[in-house]
Amino acid sequence: MAQPDFHAQIKDWPTDPGVYLMRDGSQRILYVGKAKNLKNRIRSYFQKTESLTAKTRMLMKRVISIEFQVTQTELEALLLECNLIKKHRPRYNIRLKDDKNYPYVVLDFSHPFPQFRTTRKLSNHPNLRYFGPYSAGVNEIGRFLLKTFQIRDCSDSKFKNRTRPCLNYEIGICTAPCVDYVNEQDYAKQIQEAILFLKGKKRELVGELKQQMQEASDKLEFERAKNLRDKIQAVEKITEKQGAILTEKQEDIDVIGIYPGEGELSIAVLFIRSGLLIGRRVEKVPLTLDSIEETIRTFLEQFYTVSLIPSEVWLAEDFPDRLTVEEFLTHRAEHPVKLKVPRTEKPLRLLGMAYENAKLIYQSDTKKSEKSASEELQEVLGLQETPHSIEGIDCSNIQGTNPAVALVHFSDERPLKSHYRIYYPKTVEGPNDFAMIYETVLRRLSRPDYPPPDLFLIDGGKGQLQSALKAIDELKLNVPVCSLAKSRTESAFTRKEIEKSEERIFVPNRKNPIILKEGNPALRLLQQVRDEAHRFSVKSHQTRRKNKMMNDSLLLEARGIGPKTRERLLKHFGSLAAVSNASVAELEKLGLKAKVAESLLEKLHEMKTQEHSSSGSGEE
Ligand code: SF4
Q: What 3-state DSSP class applies to 333?
């Protein structure tokens, strides 16, 4: 079936938030996505196809219709997207492989004499209170609760019809509320003690039990004192087994560690309840269409439909939709949830532990060879040494203005943000990527205080690679360099596989590029560096642009231009520099009086002259 003219359709699309559904010729839903601005999001699929992933391009070839549902807010879009993914399980959305629920201990308050049970099913019933999730040993905890806190384990009908206690009473693991051997108030105390235990409040619980033991002893109730002593010992024994207190915080926290594997993310979630690590879960999430950030967002939405939502969730890296997801989790949990990216020592240690868990499970599951991505890269590029440090370069020349070069640094396959830099060209006029690369590599390698990386990665093809090489040769250095380029259909290469390839690695003194299979660890590492450089470049450009607009607006304000006219001027000309090139007549058309326009232009020209005599851009 032929694809309709999506460009024509998009023109009429709303700019509101909402959800979009992509269907194939058989009306099957292939993909569900959410957007802050539906029109812009869908348009992005049809612009710059070379910047789409191979999977997205594959999807777009199959899509025959796209429909949308508008929502009032982004949060509503997120909720709707989540429900639609759950309902339709579209092929191109991420799906958790293991979506069975996790084990919990649940306390059922529907009876005056409540009881505990273990379950994998979560419900919003107000009489149910959940504890967990536990990765293992939930049945052991259940048995411990019954035995230690003497909680009944009979059905309500059995409870109702008892005329004398069952064996549980005889062996001392139930206080027999069925025959009024214990009243509601005292039974509630047993339940409270069990809750203290489940919440990990060992100190409080043991203190309480010790006080009761003392009282029993003072009253010469030796049997009761002995039972309380046994209870204290049991609590101490089982909490020792559960491990050490990991955080001072009493809140429930899920700590998430993410390890990027081959074509998938290995995500470990450590369940910390009242400072105690009570369980761990590792999920494998396939990298589908989306960026890593999108995948993490969708993972969080799906994971927390089957897992109890704690008051805090910690992540190592921030992502664009964090606050919306936080709102989503709060809405779903019906209590405040914080989605945090902590930077203090203890949380960082726990995040490191979660990352290690994700990495170890991934490595043992996939029975990977010991060879790391950098070692693989060393082999692929024929380097003498393993590239432990890699620097990636990306030029930005958005609309030919504000040229800059972003440089990112990876140390042992992980981004080291303190080493990121933005270089503003000093010698290059106008947009010229080759010259900008040459100048940046030259300036970067001329810094004596800053050792060269083990490998330079340039975003681009042969031309960009040559520009970097020229600078390295000029400095008489021996720094390995390669470039990474996405394929283009107008390929000049002769070999079929090169024409079809998605990514090409260019190295010095080799005519044809190196082609690696999608998902190859060496290629993935290069892609990570290149994509990170691009992300950093775009982000820095946006920040510069925003700051510039703000400065320009402040300067106009200082010249006595009102807010509406300021906005009109900057919207029309884009910058103060462009305003200074306008004529009085042009400014008059935008609402300035002739005298004000003349005086403004005069001041701007004066400023320009002063700037020229004292200018000089540098490295951030
Ligand atoms: S003693 Fe009574 S309340 Fe306790 S488990 Fe047996 S029947 Fe249930």
A: helix
Nearest CA to ligand 1 atom 6: 166
* 75 within 8 A of 324, measured Cβ to Cβ: yes
pLDDT of residue 178 exceeding 80: yes
What's the 3-state SS for 101-126? CCCEEEEECCCCCCEEEEECCCCCCC
Q: Which of 24, 3, 27, 14 is nearest to 69 (CA)?
A: 14
Give the number of the atom of ligand 1 that is nearest the alpha carbon of residue 165: 1
Bridge partners, 130 (sequence order): 106
For 209-230, b/e burial (b = at least 16 CB within 10 A) is: beebbeebeeeeeeeebebbee
* Chain centre distance of CA 413: 18
Measure Cα distances from 78 to 17, 72, 256, 328 in Å. Answer: 10, 11, 21, 7
Of 373, 375, 378, 349, which is closest to residue 363 (Cα–Cα)? 373
Q: What is the CA radius of gyration of the chain?
A: 32
pLDDT of the residue at 608? 61
- Between strands 414-415 and 421-423, the pairing is unpaired
Q: Which residues form the pocket of ligand 1, taking CB atoms under 6 Å from any ligand atom?
A: 152-154, 158-159, 162, 165-166, 168-169, 174, 176-178
Cβ distance 339 to 315 under 8 Å? yes
Q: Which residues pair with 267 in a beta bridge?
A: 258, 283
Answer whether 91's CB lies under 8 Å from 49's CB.
no
Residues 533, 74, 296, 68, Cα dihedral to 10° = -90
Alpha carbons 421 and 155: distance in angstroms, whole number: 67
- Give per-residue pLDDT as tens, 359-412: 888 887 665 555 788 888 998 898 888 898 999 999 887 656 678 899 999 988
| Gap between the Cα atoms of 275 and 237, Å rounded | 18
Residue 115, beta-bridge partner list: 108
| Pairing state between β 404-411 and 421-423 | antiparallel
**Residue 485 to residue 517: CA distance in whole angstroms:** 14
Three-class SS state of 532? helix
Region of poorest pLDDT, from 36-50, 75-89, 348-362: 36-50
Query: Residue 166 Cα, ligand 1 centroid: separation in angstroms?
Result: 5
CA distances 275 to 247, 350, 438, Å, are 4, 11, 53
Give the Å distance between the CA of 153 and the centre of ligand 1: 7
Q: Which residue has the higher pLDDT, 282 or 562?
A: 282
Domains and CATH numbers, the chain: 6-88 (3.40.1440.10), 104-199 (no CATH), 252-365 (3.30.420.10), 373-540 (3.30.420.340), 559-614 (1.10.150)
Q: Give distance in angstroms: CA of 113 to centre of ligand 1.
A: 11
Q: How many CA atoms lie within 13 A of 272 on its CB side?
A: 26
Q: Span 323-341, mean pLDDT?
A: 90
Query: Which amino acid, 562?
Result: G
Contact 287, 56 (CB under 8 A): no
Q: How far apart are CA 194 and CA 149, in angstroms?
A: 6
What pLDDT shows up at residue 520?
85
Residues facing 266 on adjacent strands = 259, 284
Beta strand 481-486 with 503-506 is antiparallel
User: Which tokens in the block code for residue 474?
Assistant: 């000029």
CA distance 72 to 328: 14
Tokens 């201990």, residue? 105
